[in-house]
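can u pls check wat happens w/ lysine
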Amino acid sequence: MVGLSACLCYPPGVVSRHQPPARLLAPAEFSVPKTDSLHPMNQFEYRDGELYCENVRIADLVKQHGTPLWVYSQSKLLQEYQAIRDAFAAVKPVICYSVKANSNLSLLKLLNEAGSSFDVVSGGELFRVKEAGADTTRVVFAGVGKTNAEIEQALLNNILMFNVESEAELESIARVAAKLKRVAPLALRLNPDIDAKTHAKTTTGKKGNKFGMDIEKHNALAAKVLADPNLELRGIHMHLGSPINTTDPYEQAAKKALDVVTELRRQGHQTNWINLGGGFGLNYRGTEAPPASAYADVIIPYIQKAECRLALEPGRSIVGNAAVLISQVIYTKREGGKLFIIQDAAMNDLVRPAMYDSFHSIWPVAPSVPVPKDFEAEVPGCEPADVVGPICESGDYLAKQRWLPAVKTGDLMCTYSAGAYGTAMSSNYNSRPRGAEILVNGSTSRIIRRRETYEDLIAAEKV
Ligand SMILES: Cc1ncc(COP(=O)(O)O)c(C=O)c1O
Ligand SMILES: N[C@@H](CCCC[NH3+])C(=O)O
């Protein structure tokens, strides 16, 4: 079924990270049937048996830019931002896109122009959003280890508020604010001990996680803030984990926020912000994530009752399905009773499967079998394969035992839902240069991050 004639060949014009291709330009070995199947999750659509992003043919992008290649749909990015904004319109939220999900400058600029604000967790992210032209007075700053330098940088940029995670951090903020003769705006991050049922490595709102503080500590620190002229308690912050595919944890959190705000006001604080963090689900498989309106339905009543401003920090749900990762098959091999598809995207590009056993749909760019409705099911005309990268680790895979059509050396593969925590968590492991990032808008495309070169790998080491 699968082309095992592992000729080391590349389709016409394809540039690979593996330099130089040993032999070039083998003719296509099978013809592609026509299919108009639409991937259920996003703007990446098969037309006449070939994958497009908006009106741009993916294979054409590969001819120009090589693989691995990140391809973004501008309309998908903005559509998902607007869906959240519209769902919460009744309370006019400040949507602070979570920069950690994908910090590409061009995407930040687009979101900034669309009216988004930003959630940052480092001085580097604050630097990025400034470069993108953001109004820093709408930026929130989270993270358990803010340094004095980062606190100073944030205060000088008049951020909306710090999400404070510990007593020691509060003391640092107070010291730096006093030195600068400023009043530091903040929210205390409450760990509400709510089980959001995420992967163990991505839960953040359960007792025992390193994030935030319990309600007793919260109340004790709130009293300290009240007594310090350099501190101002603007709100309460919670972030429960990611991704959260049910709305119930948000309802519990919103209810808790209402109770806390009521108590803080009773104590004399002017608290009028509720920040419920990010974590909204993403359709990696099909339709597992509730729409933004479902989260809004359970959150809005509590915000209205509290008469508070709402801040949200969504990252994944905005950018996740706005990008795919395109790779090229290098070899196929059968070993130990399994079929392996070895392609040129690896755990250094997309670490999520290795790190969390995450599921990403994968299908060829020009498949011999129409794209299935269910990527986890047995598909007629296909056989199970492990899709792996060239890195020297057994954990280097993008998918395991996935039913896939026949592919051969030089074929292009598409890994879906790659926009969030893909490039953001990528590395140069095994001295692999990162691939280019391309933004598609209708029938046009532009490079938003160039492919790295071997020289880039050693540039910072030339001291
Ligand atoms: C404090 C905080 N806010 C926002 C986010 C963004 O989460 P997501 O990308 O799932 O929306 C995270 C990451 O989980 C986070 O830790
Ligand atoms: N990086 C994780 C989620 C953690 C988000 C940061 N708090 C992912 O790839 O799904």
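The chain has a mean pLDDT of 90.
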